[in-house]
Structure formats: structure tokens, C-alpha cells
Design goal:
Blueprint lengths: L2 H16 L21 H9 L6 H11 L3 E10 L2 E9 L5 E7 L5 E6 L2
Antiparallel strand pairs: 1-2, 2-3, 3-4
Length: 114
């Protein structure tokens, strides 16, 4: 089984227990830099080395700020910084994108999707 598929299944299992409101969400981890393309092991190494926070911590932070269903998660390298981009849909169908610094978990930006 491809590593990315295993990762997605693992995240969905954990998320459904800890965050029941996203249990049916589709969580896509996209490692969009050529350095990290489809490389779960590299992301895991970064978490293990303390260079980025695990997705669980970021989702906990998001849960403090907002409610809704997570529909997409991406780990990306932008301007030399690793970030988590998370899209969430609320009960009214409004989609918001949250951008968190992957290293320290601070919210960098929140915007409503068009």
C-alpha cells in the first residue's frame, strides 16, 4: 500500500476518534514541494526532529477557533517556510482556509474561499 494512502487512513482513524465532526472529511496531505513530493517519511522525520508540529496539534488549535468539517489539509513549503493549509466548511456551506506555521502552530492567515 502506498505510504501516502497509509498516512491518510491513519489520520482518518485518529481524527474520527478525537474530532468526530470531521470523521467523514476527506483529508488530503499534499507535500507540494519537489523536496517533499509524496514523502511521508520525510514529513515524519521533521515531526520526530521537532521541526514541525504533528497535524493533530494543528487540528486541536483549529478546533479552538472554529467549528466545521475539515475538507482538505496540505503541508506545503512556501517562501522557505513549512505551512499547514487547512480548508474547513461550516454548517452554512461557507469554506474557510486557515494557514498555520508548521513549526510553531501559529495561525498566519484566515480567509473565506470564493
Amino acid at each position: 500500500m502506498p505510504t501516502l494512502v497509509r498516512l491518510m487512513k491513519k489520520i482518518l482513524r485518529r481524527a474520527s476518534v478525537r474530532y468526530p465532526h470531521i470523521s467523514f472529511a476527506i483529508i488530503a496531505i499534499v507535500l507540494s514541494s519537489s523536496l517533499f513530493a509524496d514523502d511521508y517519511e520525510k514529513a515524519k522525520e521533521l515531526v520526530d526532529a521537532g521541526k514541525i508540529l504533528p497535524l493533530e496539534r494543528i487540528l486541536e488549535e483549529l478546533n479552538k477557533r472554529s467549528t466545521g468539517r475539515v475538507i482538505e489539509v496540505e503541508l506545503e513549503l512556501k517562501k522557505g517556510r513549512l505551512i499547514y493549509e487547512i480548508e474547513q466548511i461550516d454548517a452554512h456551506g461557507l469554506v474557510r482556509e486557515y494557514i498555520f506555521d508548521a513549526a510553531d502552530g501559529h495561525l498566519l492567515m484566515e480567509k473565506v474561499e470564493d
